[in-house]
Every structure is written in structure tokens, then in C-alpha cells.
Amino acid sequence: MTDFSLLARLNNAHGPSGRESEVRKVLCDVLAPIADEITFDGLGSVIARLNRHATGPKVAVVAHMDEVGFLIREIRSDGLLKVFKLGGIDPMVAVNSEVEVKTRSGKKYTGLIWSNKPIPELTMDDLWLDVGADTREDVLAMGIEIGDSAVFATRHFALNDSGNLVAKAIDDRIGCWLGAELMRTLAHSSLQCDLHFVATVQEEVGTKGGKTAIEQLKPDVVIVLDVATAKHADAQSGTQRVYGNGPCLVVADKIALGHYPLLNFVSDVAKEQGIQVQRDFLAGGGTDNGPATMVGHGIAGLAIILPVRNCHSAYTQVSQNDVLNCLALLQQTITQLDETQTARLYSYY
Q1: Looking at the domain assignment, is residue 160 inside a domain?
Q2: pLDDT under 70 in the chain at which residues?
Q3: Does the annotation count 203 as an active-site position?
Q4: Record-annotated residues binding Zn(2+) 2 (predicted)?
Q5: Max alpha carbon distance in the chain (Å)?
Q6: Which of 18, 148, 20, 19 is nearest to 82 (CA)?
Q7: Domains in the chain: how many in total?
Q8: Residue positions in the annotated binding site?
Q9: Which residues fall in the annotated binding site for Zn(2+)?
Q10: Which listed residue, 18, 213, 249, 264, has the most CB atoms within 10 A of its CB?
Q11: Within a domain: 99
Q12: Domain with 174 in it
């Protein structure tokens, strides 16, 4: 049975955009005994390297550390707080939620989000964050300041014995788990490529780490791991991204196209290994693959996403089978990415 205890630690860490330090520490503690070296970009993205003496291509597997969340933007005289959202949070999802507020000193408080407006009419400005204070002075005495962060308070758990995992930060701590597990399982393998796991920051607020980290690294190939809401529960619907039907290879999204030769290569690997995959389109959004592939002269890149339920909420759900199929696909793909295969990705004439 696969050990998901690291995933639980990652999911339970407090890490909204720009406040990823807890997630970074968990990953660095795990990767330090495995990686040849760990470096950082200027924004705090983690770049862990494996097989640094390889003569083959430099390959980056990318996942973002940040989760959706909030910043405290106002402390009112009656002790109630107003929030600024980080990432795509629907106010109808946020209302009536328990959150975890973290101060500059690291102290954490429970907060409750509520509103006196009808749910269909809600905007973020209609939400109140209550930490149990009666006055502004009470809030300040707790050490809470404007600019402090909050995230949903859900703890990681397995959904009965269904093979499904639930947490507040599956987006994209599941990608971080996959990257770390990939490094661990390939640590003693004979790889042709110079492998880097890149855990980026601030993806939810503009895919920032996907640009800065990849510009620093300048790899030959980029594989981005992320999640997206499953489109339908029924495979007979004919749509892509069906929950439980395997990882999805993103043909195109709002800001990037999957590099076609790389898309076909990964598809072929999946077919050879009997790994079920889907092809997908993200019409409404993008991933770190967008900024990453535009670095330098352009980089062959592909996003692989896991279908989830209740994305950007307190209870995002992912299938263990999809996760393990994605890990197997990554292992086989990375093992086969040598100098010859990489050259084929850039053969334009």
C-alpha cells in the first residue's frame, strides 16, 4: 500500500500564494537526503536536482506549492475582518467555512467566514471573518495584522475505504507529492537525464514561479503537474477529464499548447505501459506550463493534470488510482527521456 503520510503533511501545511514557507520546509526536509542539490529562485520556488552528472537532457518536473486562500485586508472596530482572496475562490464556496489564520509570528487561530447576504448574491466584499474578537484592539492583541494569511482549515483524510483522498490543498500538493515521490523512487535508477523537481510559488496569482524558476533553470523539457475539476462523472458522456479515468494530457489551455511531439511521446509511453490516460483541454485557465515554455528560445512543455472534485474549496477530492497511474507514467517517461528522444522533440525539418 502506498504511503500517503507525506501528502497529508503537505496538505495540512499552511501555504497560500506568497506564504509557502511551511510547504517549502516539508519538501526540503524530505528532498535533502535524496537530491544532489537544492536551490531556490528569487521568489522562493524550490529546485531539487537529481543525477547532476548526466550528459543527457535537463528535465524539469514542475508543481506549485501554493494553495488558494486569503489575506487580511481590513480590521474593523467591531473585531470583524475583511479578506482579499488569493486565487479563484467563489464566495459561495467560502461562506460558512472554518479557516486557519496565521500571524507573522507563526501563531494560528481558528476563524469562521459568514455573511448576512443571501448566498446567490454574495461577493467577496460581503464576507466577514470572525476570530472571536469584539474590538480592533482584541484582534491586534492576538498578533493579527493586515497582510496576514488564512486558508481553509480542513485536515487531510481518506474518504472511508473508497480509494479517494480529501484535503483543502490537493491543488497542487498532490503535484508536489508526485514530484517528491518521483525523485525518491528514481534516486538509485540509471537515468540518462539531469532531473529537476521544481516546486513553484504563486501559481494561483499569475503563474509567477513557473516563470522565475524555469528562467533560472533553463531546462530542455518541462512537465507540469496540476489538477482541474472533473467535467463529468459519467465516462459515457464523451467528454474528457472524467474522474477516476486516469491522468489527463493537456492538448491546449488558455495560455499554452502542449508541445505536440512531447504530447505524442508521453501518449506512446502510456500506451506501451498500459497506463490509462485522457486527453484534455483547459478552456478557462492555464498552468505553469504557459510561462515555462516561453523561457529563452522556447521549451518543449506539457501539462499533466489530475481530475478532481470540488477544486478550490475546503474539500478537494482526488482518486488514489489516478495519482498512482500518474506516478507510473512519470517514472516511465523520465526513464526514457534521453538525448536522442529529446532531439526528436525539436526536429522541425
Answers
A1: no
A2: 1, 232-239
A3: yes
A4: 171, 204, 312
A5: 70
A6: 148
A7: 2
A8: 64, 171, 204, 226, 312
A9: 64, 171, 204, 226, 312
A10: 213
A11: yes
A12: 4-67+168-346
